[in-house]
Amino acid sequence: MKKSAIYPGTFDPITFGHIDVIKKGLKIFDKIIVAVSESNSKKCLFDSYERIKIVNDALFKDLKFKKSNIKVISFDSLTTDLCKKLKSTVILRGLRAVSDFEYEFQLSGMNKKLNNSIETLFLMSDADKQIISSKLIKEITELRGDIKKFTTKSTVKALKDKYA
Predict the structure, then answer these.
(1) Catalytic residue of the set 18, 24, 93, 138
(2) Is residue 96 annotated as part of the catalytic site, yes or no?
(3) 89, exposed or middle or buried, with CB in 10 Å at 0-12, 13-18, 19+?
(4) What is the model's pLDDT at position 127?
(5) Domain residues of the chain, as ranges?
(6) What is the reported pLDDT for 120?
(7) Does 27 participate in catalysis according to the annotation?
(8) Which parts of the chain register pLDDT below 50?
C-alpha cells in the first residue's frame, strides 16, 4: 500500500521553502498531496485557481517533478476531513524558524483532537531557505525587487504579471 501525506497551505505563492519540504517529504512518502486552501481567513493575492496553476507550473514545468508522486488539489474543509476523504493519516508541515513552531504546535494539537488517527510530521527546510516567506516575496515583488532566488521562474512571472 502506498503511503501518502497531505501538505496543506495557501501557497500564495509557492516558494523554494515549500518546494524543499515537498522534496524531503518525497523521501519519506510515496505521494505528496499539495492541498491548496480555499480558506478566506488569509487575504491572498492569488485566488485558489491561480494558486493551483502556479503550484502546478512550478512543480511540473519548472522543476520537472513526476506527476505520479505529487498531486495538487484545492480544498475548503478542515484538513482532518480532507485526510479522511483521501485516506491519509499524515499531515506534512514545514517549519522555517522557532517563531513558526508555536502556531504549528497548536494546529497540530487541534488536528489531533479532531481526529486522533492523524499525525503531523514537521520538516525543516534547509537553512538557506528558512528566511523565505510568501509574504516577503510579495512585498519584494511589489517594490520591484529581484525574487529569482526565492521561487521558480513561472512563479516569478505570475507575481510580476500580478503587480504590473
Answers:
(1) 18
(2) yes
(3) middle
(4) 87
(5) 4-163
(6) 97
(7) no
(8) none
26 and 121 in contact (C-beta within 8 Å)? no
What is residue 66's predicted lDDT score, i.e. its pLDDT? 94
4-163 CATH, one of 3.40.50.620, 3.40.50.11540, 1.20.1440.230, 3.30.428.10: 3.40.50.620
Active site residue 42: yes
Per residue in 71-85, is it b (16+ CB within 10 Å) or e — as a string?
ebeebeeebbebbbe
Lookup result for grid cell 516575496:
137
Nearest partner of 135 among 5, 27, 11, 33, judged by Cα: 11
Among the listed residues 3, 39, 42, 67, the single catalytic one is 42
The active-site residue, picked from 48, 134, 138, 154, is 134
Catalytic residue (choose from 96, 125, 138, 154): 96
Whether 108 and 71 have beta carbons less than 8 Å apart is answered as no
18 is catalytic: yes
